[in-house]
Predict the structure.
Amino acid sequence: MYNLKAENQKQEMDEKLVFDVGMHRGEDTGYYLLKGFRVIGIDADPSLINLAKKKFAKHYNHRQIELLQFAVCNVDNADFEFYLSVKSIWNSLDKNISNRLNSYKETIIVKSRSLSSLFVEFGTPFYCKVDLEGYDNKSLQVLKGMTDLPAFISCESECIGESETITEDEALETLKILHALGYTKFKLVDQLTLRPLKPNVHFYNDDLYIQKKVGLIQKIRNRIFPEKINNYHSQLSEKFGYKFEYGSSGPFGEDIEGDWVNFNTAKEMLLFHRRDYFGLSKANNFSFWCDWHASRL
């Protein structure tokens, strides 16, 4: 029986370890376990922790996955108000995000942890997925000065409330933080389709988007292109033997197709695609949904 806590009391990258920070319903967790990684799954919502214990019972019982209920941010061992949404994918430390489309449900009090202290306790992972609905940047900033960091890391490029807007310079903040931490290669992935975006190649345009009434998903983006989604998701399922559900971050590292780009190209690429997206006839302010994937290798 493998004991994660006992064997990783040091700050050193473990090539067999993945952190799933903002695990949600385990949409990506199963992929990491399938690939043979040990997983630290972290979520502030106790119902999602309990769900994961059942969903991954075999792995949990064999200590291949450790489940932690914390709000990950920039401080340790503090009590925070955590806001639950009817749409649990919007659970957040930021009430504005949890209340998109009037979906706020209730407030719970949770303890906090920082990524830096978690890395020291459990070991620095080979890959760290960060999906904290508005708190990605704060969680990343505490890693500054650490002697060892994950080979690969991912996080949302931006995440704001329904009534908020950000400038293009503010939209580049996450990328700048990753670069300041020492990450030098980047990929930008559209999270609805899990398609990696390319420099100077148009992806978002009204001709590709069609109206589809699918409840809350329609309200999130107002239009999706299901054929493109289903086709590419099917390709990923066939390639990796794993079905990436809606809300997943998808493959990571070298499993993502396409070339890595440098920091300057990444900046230009983000602004290129944001301008295309917000030029759509029915784009809303909070629905540009992309992940940065970064590499130090």
Q: What stands out?
A: Residues 4-295 form a domain with the Rossmann fold fold (CATH 3.40.50.150). The radius of gyration is 18 Å. The chain has one domain: 4-295.
